[in-house]
Amino acid sequence: MSMTDERFCMRHLAPGAPESPYVVRRIWRRMEEDRLTRATFYDGSVTTADGLVHELLECGALSFALFWEGYLCGAAWFNAFEGRTARGHFTLFRKVWGHARTVPVGRGIFSTALHLKDARGYFFDAVLGLTPESSLSWRLALRCGARLVGRIPNGVYLAAEDRSAPAVLVAATRESLKGEH
Asked: pLDDT at position 5, please?
């Protein structure tokens, strides 16, 4: 499988662009329809469409709308920048669930993020994901080229349960996408 699939693309959600808040609100509505908001924002940090606009467009995140075969299929955003490392987040709508679609989308997210450049070179050398151990998202990340870094006791907060829970940390690098360590 190639690193990116021609059926997939990511479009930057520019913070100052007039259409960006509209697209983010569309993403939120789809997340609500697919019942993804609580799983995506398990920590309770985003609970409304305006909260998602704030998170993706007003807090310094590098955010993207995801498309599969021309249709909006989710969002990905990167934040908590440190050096050339960022935390990666994503949500995929049910319409693209299934190995034949989610793996190319996930690989596309990692590949696009890890190949973003400017005059100084790559933006990111690693994209990190920290999720509840009970979540399927970290397993998907492994299928898409990330590597397991480790488990962290009480590493995430589950707002709906008002408790901390075990977490899994994964990392994607250009090398891991090629199957190298």
From this structure: 83
Which residue type sits at 94?
R
The pLDDT value given to residue 2: 40
What is the tens place of the pLDDT at every residue in 71-85?
A: 999 999 999 999 999
Cβ-Cβ contacts under 8 Å for 115 (sequence gap 6 or more): 122, 174
- Separation of alpha carbons 86 and 113, rounded Å: 10
Yes or no: say if 97 and 74 are a contact pair by the CB < 8 Å rule.
no
Residue 172 neighbours by CB under 8 Å, 6+ apart: 88, 110, 113, 114, 126, 127, 129, 141, 144, 145, 146, 147
The residue with tokens 């690098």 is 173
Q: Do 134 and 109 meet the contact criterion of CB atoms below 8 Å apart?
A: no
Q: Compute the residue count for the chain.
A: 181
Query: What pLDDT is attached to residue 1?
Result: 34
